[in-house]
Structure formats: C-alpha cells, structure tokens
Amino acid sequence: MELTIDADGVALPASLTVPDGHCRGGLVVLHGAAAGHRSFFLYEHLARVLPAMGVAVLRYDRRSREQGDVPLAVQAADARAALLRLCQEVGEVPTGLWGVSQGAWAALVTAATHPADVAFLVLVSACGISPARQMRFGTAEQLRRAGFGTADIAELLDVRLTVEGYLRGDVSRSVAQAAVDRVAGRAWFPLSYLRRTMPDQPGSWVDMDVDPAVFMAGVRCPALLFYGETDDWMPVDESIAAWRQANTPDGTPSPEICRLPGCGHLPGPDGNTTIEGISPRYTETMSRWLDSQLPHRHGRRRPGAG
Question: What top-level branch of life does the organism fall under (predicted)?
Fold first, then answer.
C-alpha cells in the first residue's frame, strides 16, 4: 500500500506492508545515513519477512538532505509522525521502531522523548558514542584496513579534530580550511569523509556531540540490539558497554544483545547489498524476539481483508 506521511507539512512518500490476517504489531523503519530511500535492501527485507508473522512494516523516504544531515530531532519528529500514521492504518496494536546506524540514534531520540508511542526497539549498529567520535573511529578504521600506517592515521585524526573545532565555533574557518588543504592530496583523503571546502558558517553539524547515553537512559521499552563483529564504523564493545551502563528507569527491561559473526556494520558480510546475503542469525533472532514481545491474537484485520 502506497501512502504519504505528513511530517510537519512535508509529505514523505511511504510504503505499508500489512499481514494477510490479524495484525499483531507494527514497525516503522528508520534510515541509515546513506540509505534514505524506502527501497533500501534492509528495509525491503523487513517488509518481506515480518508481515508473515503478523507485523505490519511502514517504510518511508527520509526528507531531503540537500542542506546536509537531517537533525536527529527532526528525524525523531518524522518517526513519530510515521508511528501515528501506522496506528491509523493498523489499529491499536503495539508499534515500535527499527533503525540502523544513524537511524538507531533517531530511534533512541524518539523512544526517549515520546515513550508512550514506542512499544519496542530493534536497532542495528546502535553506536554508543557521539557522532563526532564515531566518525573519528570509523575513518581511522577505514585507513587502517586499507593499509595506511600510524602516521597517516594520526594526521587524519588531527585534521578531523581541527575541522570539528571549526564546526563547534572554536577554530576559525581559515585555520580549518588550511588544515584540509594540507592533506587533500594524500592518498588516504578520499577515505577521510571530510569536505574539501569548509561550510561558510560553523554549526552545520548540529548533532556532532550528541551523547547517546542520555537517550539510552530515557528508553522505557524492550530493545533488541544487533552488532556485527567485524564492524568498521563504530566501536562495538564500547557501544554495548554504554547500553549496559545506561541509567534507565526502574523496571526497564535490559536490552537483548546479539553479536553477528562474519557481519560488518550491516547484518551481512562487509560489502553485501542483497537480501540473500543478510545473516540468517539476524533474521531468526529478530523474528523470535518480536514473536516473544507481541500478542498472538490482537488488533484488527488488514485494511480490505474479508
């Protein structure tokens, strides 16, 4: 079913896949940084697998990134609008969020700020450190795996810290631009994920110092977390520790954590972009966990069902 989500006056195209029979629950899909379209293979996988077990899946296109990253607060507001639209379509059933990478951050913000609207979370590569720290870790790991040495990595981190200083308003634009100019010819620069030209104004990366632990502490619903053991974009152990140390409200269930052997930042081998390459353990664990969280006979039949 094709529909649109009214997100504060912005119409977001969406696709809703519903069960053939009774709907036990619903899931809204939130986006990775480079995967803003609802046709991304991980999102389509959810729409193929979950309706068969009674779970409706709502996928939508993230709003435009023409002006840069969409702030997490805006993504969270859009996610809540999607949850409300999903409830309109499937009735009073438990509804939750699935998010990958940046989408996991957005899901956290949504669950912490609108706890009554989020019954559960399924998060893939939910990073437990700030976006700025995560990008330092991830780009350094790109260089390391590409065979660059410690001096190259140190130079990368130095320039990233200088650029971060400009974005925070602590360093002048000319100093940050000069730092980038000095390394732009390095063989590793394409792996740095740095802009070649600094933005005209600082403050363009509004979420760079967001601490996920603040939002982890506000989560009141059950959560299932997936981490690939070969993830090259975030520190897995530190992220898991952040979840375990989060000062959540009394009575909040501890998240279930699933490590995925042979998987990277996404739930499949590094470089996989196909549904067929998705880890069976990921699919089986998610299906089992959702089955344990959702009522077995609840809600109304799908729209149009006899």
Answer: Bacteria
